[in-house]
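Quick question: what would this complex look like in 3D?
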Amino acid sequence: MTSKRVSELIAAYGAAPEKWPVSEREAALVLLGRDAALRAEQQQMAALDTALDRWPSPTLDLNAVALAAQVSATPRPRVAARSSFLRFPILAWPNAAGLAAAALAGFLVGWSGLDTDYSGQSDVDRQIVASVVEDATW
Amino acid sequence: MLEPSDDELMRAAGAGDRAAFGTLVARHLQRMAGLAGRITGNRGDAEEIVQEAFLRAWLKAATWLGREDHAGGAAFSTWLGRVVVNLCLDRKRKAVPLPIEAAADVADPAPDGFDATAGGEVAARVAQAMATLPDRQRAAIALCHYEGLSNIEAAAMLDVTVGALESLLVRARRSLRAALVDLAPEGSRQ
């Protein structure tokens, strides 16, 4: 703690030590006790604090019971399941795993040709295919 | 009996418990009203802002992740204070002049120094001096001097570092001292 820092505390937080940061208060008070110049600064700031305290706390025309009743009557939009995943992130992994499994299965089915059904192919279809292949070889 | 924490009340409110929400409002209304009143300096604006802030709390309750739920969660009072401060600053920022024809139809958004008369001439002078401060400086004084919040809480509500908060406070106090110098006793004037 330095005299400069005590001066900064007074300039920022005012004359009352209880408004200074707790972590610095004790050391600042020790220094203040030894330094008349700092005490003069504190006294000057106390005059401003006194003036500020003359402005009473604003009173609003709000009643807690009525306000709570009015606000809590407001319907909430539907909440996505996302909230429970944020609270318990482990719940999110089955979703991701399911999506990945479905994607992999789709790829394998497409790649292996299992989705192609030749059983219903008519003779006409076979002839068309054969002629196309024949044309292509010419 | 141990009072339920803010986080417990928010979780209950999130599950639809309106009484729990009522307890939260009762617990925080006075501080939020004081904060909004000091920053806006206008009763109508302050009332609307406080109502809006609690409405946001009600809507937020269903997905609330507080300090008890999550390591990075916010204290409810800090979260609510930040909502109020932001609404106050946004309101000041968005204030636009209206055509003169509309003047009779709207509430005056200018600082009206409400309640200042209760403290007499000095209170009116203080209210006026506060109204001339830049918004963030006024908010810093409202949080630290009037609401007695710690520097860490106040900085979190203003979304600035503690160093930046101190800078706001120093500049605000310098301006206030200049504006109110004649109110200080002879011996304490610089």
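Answer marked as accepted. Chain B has eight helices and no strands.
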